[in-house]
Amino acid sequence: MGERLEFAEKTETDASNPFIPKFESFLNEKCIKDIQRLVENYPQKRSLSVDFKDIELFDFELADELLINPDYVLEAANEAIKNIDVPALELENFAPHIRVFNLPQEQQPLLRNISAAHLGKLILVEGVVGQLTEVLPKLKIATWECTRCGNTYKIPQSEHQSKPPYICECKHRSFNLVAEDSEFVDYQKIKTQEPLEKLKGSEIAATLDIFASDDLVNQVSPGAKTRITGILRLLPPKDKKTVYGKYLEAVHIEETMQEFDDIEITPEDEKEIRELAAKPDIYELLVKSVAPTIYGHETIKEAISLQLFGGVKKILPGESKIRGNIHVLLVGDPGLAKSQILTAVHNIAPKSIYIAGKTTTGAGISATAVKDDFGEGGWTLKAGALVLANGGICLIDELDKMDAEDRSALHESLEQQKISVAKAGIVTTFKTETSVLSAANPKFSRFDQYTSFIEQINLPPTLISRFDLFFMMKDVLDRKKDEDIAKHILKTHQIGEKMWLERKMKKKMSAKDKEELERSITPAINLELFKKYLSYARQNIFPVLTQESIQALSDFYIGLRDQGRKEGNYAATHRQLEGLVRLSEASARVRLSDVVELKDTERAIRLVKTSLQEVVTDPETGKIDIDIITSGQTHTQITNLKKILRIIKDKSSEIDDGMVPIEDVIGESKTEGIDSDKVREILTKLEKAGDIYRPRHGVVKPTSKR
Ligand code: ADP
Ligand code: MG
Questions:
Q1: Which residue intervals of 402-545 are DSSP H helices?
Q2: 468 has a pLDDT exceeding 50
Q3: 296 close to ligand 1 (CB < 6 Angstrom)
Q4: For residue range 342-381, what is the model confidence (pLDDT) as tens digits?
Q5: Does the C-beta of 336 come closer than 6 Å to ligand 1?
Q6: Which of 59, 210, 397, 686 is within CB 3.0–4.6 Å of 190 for a Cys-Cys bond?
Q7: H or E stretch including 122?
Q8: Is the domain of 73 the same as that of 117?
Q9: 254: enclosing H helix or E strand
Q10: Which residues surround ligand 2, an ion (CB under 5 A)?
Q11: Which ligand is nearest to the CA of 342?
């Protein structure tokens, strides 16, 4: 049994570890109550959380050693707690974990700065959970059986490779694992990445794998921001490569969920923000700061600036929630700077993800469960853009190219602000309190002004109706406008070229060029200040509707509904009303105002009107008709559809075989004021809907008599 003893000795705690008595006195003095509570709840609770600051105050050297030599000191701590004399500590196998949190600033490297110098040290990292494996059993103490003599050996296993004994007593060297006599521990791998708000521009987020075991598993969900204390270790390379990976063995995990808490706002910043917000032309300044290189599109920029501030999220009694996030959709002809606008917003927003409809990454827009290497054969939950941008804004370009699965997730996320995943027995929901700014192209790549908006975009009406504002961008041939845009684009390019000259060739820009640069493409509000302004307003300002503003919104809304009632259509649904409230709140937030004033509701109404007019005006009557969005057809279209179906049914009942010549339908429809082209179009629609069919060329027959 010599070999076994040798192994056993190496892994047993060193009784002479000088940190055991030190930790005993610390625990006795500072944690006795917590230990008592732990004992009462053991083994459901198996961890004692210890604030590093407390250890530091108690014994500076002990604290220091813990950071430098965490394996040895934590081993002592885990041993020490067993020796603490608390009443009722008669538990067998009492072996809780000491979990240290709140390390000093010097021990909190950014994920991207983690280096070989941190190996074996205790550090604290902050990241967002991007991926998470299911809970897997990990071998802790293995029982090995000699394949020749049957002798068994119990051997604690090191981190990553299973380790059988070197040689058996009988000098044989081949062993089998006896799983039923081995001990396993719960284990989970977590991939964290840098919080988006810490990244500049299009920097790629650094990632770090976290290995969590025992009661640390299932403590976090994908998309959650977490602070993890752990020991940095090397991951041996697979095969015979020489590059090692690294991972953090978690000691303590804590979820932090504050919005934008990484953006530090000093009292000076606050003063500057207050001054800015008090400027009479603040709304224009905002418009001039959203995508300044893009000429025109002021209404869209105004909508986007309100979207960035956002409305107020409400949590009502009974935990029901009303979203505060504003969603905006841009649909337009190609080459109208939609993608450019989205990219520009990506640079302004304190927290954002830019993604194109057709993603190549597995998780894409929503969230998924996949089987891959990371999950070591099991399932991994992966957070997609909407989840990772939780609390911020998700920019989705080419929305029309999105696949059905992502689309239905987006659907849920826009309104419920969560995404559910149910796959392979994993049922979970992800929080997606994310506002969405999206761009899409028309179905036939260019808008045709004679057909309704909805028919020209490849998106289900129910999805579109979840956006608070939608804008249609049409490429109209307008001489004056073309000249202005051309001038702006050319000027922008010229300034860009001159900036290169200055940078590379040290050729100074003339005062006139400098002035041009300032005037035309420099954002009115400096980018850093803009970000701080946004996060300050979103964290501190929660405006309330006044009686006056309630009246104004109500009047406008009822007006739309009245119009609808007269025409027999729906000019607006309750969704539009909620959107109006959100936009008004956002407008008040811009001024850092605690109340929603009349001027805020006016701004909201103007935007909603523009949006509705552009998109849901019935091309045949010129009236706003929300039916276009809710059902994909205008009220006129629906009426015409019904009329023609009626004609077909009436005629059909008069004929023996029920087959109606199309010529007759056209003739009859003329008296109703519907021309023959329209009739043919409607017949196709009715056929698609299954209301009629064509038994042979030139005739139609209704599928039902009534
Ligand atoms: P889209 O995504 O709408 O198809 P892009 O964002 O790719 O269009 O824009 C095409 C190009 O045209 C970009 O380089 C953009 O800068 C330029 N452009 C289009 N409209 C404008 C405008 N109003 N002002 C300045 N540049 C514009
Ligand atoms: Mg584009």
A1: 404-416, 453-456, 461-464, 479-505, 511-520, 527-540
A2: yes
A3: yes
A4: 999 988 888 888 888 765 444 578 777 777 777 777 777 7
A5: yes
A6: 210
A7: strand 122-133
A8: no
A9: strand 245-256
A10: 339
A11: 1
What's the distance, CA 89 to chain centroid?
A: 46
Q: Which two tokens stand for residue 176?
A: 């089998």
> 455 and 419 in one domain?
yes
Rounded distance from Cα 473 to ligand 2 centre (Å):
12
* Residues 648, 666 within the same domain: yes
Task: Supply the pLDDT for residue 7.
Answer: 37
Q: What is the CATH number of the domain that holds 191?
A: 2.40.50.140
Q: How far is CA 616 from CA 155, 446, 499, 525, in A?
A: 72, 17, 44, 34
Encoded tokens for 532? 């701080």
Ligand with the closest atom to the CA of 296: 1
Q: Which amino acid is at 627?
A: D
Structural domain includes residue 35 = yes
Question: Do 412 and 455 meet the contact criterion of CB atoms below 8 Å apart?
Answer: no
My answer on whether 467 and 328 are in the same domain is: yes
Contact 102, 219 (CB under 8 A): no
Cα–Cα distance, 650 to 635 (Å, whole number): 22
Measured in Å, how far apart are the chain's first and last C-alpha atoms? 91
User: Considering 219, 238, 255, which residue would you say is the last residue of a domain?
Assistant: 255
Indicate whether 329 and 244 sit together in one domain: no
Nearest atom, ligand 1, residue 342 CA? 6
The verdict on the CB of residue 97 being under 6 Å from ligand 1 is no
Q: Is 343 in the pocket of ligand 1 (CB under 6 A)?
A: no
Give me 638's structure tokens.
């629906």
Closest CA to 652 of 639, 638, 667, 662: 662
Amino acid (1-letter code) at residue 79: E
Same domain, 119 and 78: no
Question: With a 6 A CB cut-off, is 151 part of the ligand 1 pocket?
Answer: no
- pLDDT confidence of residue 90: 64
Question: Which SS3 state, helix, strand or coil, does residue 321 take?
Answer: strand
Instruction: Assess if residue 355 is contained within a domain.
Output: yes
CATH of the domain at 367: 3.40.50.300
Does a structural domain hold residue 485? no
Q: Which atom of ligand 1 is nearest to the CA of 334?
A: 4
Binding site membership of 294 for ligand 1 (Cβ less than 6 Å): yes
Task: Give me the half-sphere count of Cα atoms (radius 13 Å) on the Cβ side of residue 641.
Answer: 17
- Its domain, for residue 466, covers 316-480
Angle in degrees, CA 180, 423, 213, rounded to 5 = 45
Start-end of H helices in 568-675: 574-590, 598-616, 627-630, 635-654, 662-671
The length of the chain, given as a count of residues: 706
| pTM for this prediction | 0.71
The number of domains in the chain is: 4
pLDDT-derived band of residue 6, with 50, 70 and 90 as boundaries?
Answer: very low
pLDDT digits (tens, 9 = 90+) for 397-424: 888 888 777 888 888 888 888 888 777 6
Q: How far does the centroid of ligand 2 lie from the alpha carbon of residue 441, in Å?
A: 8
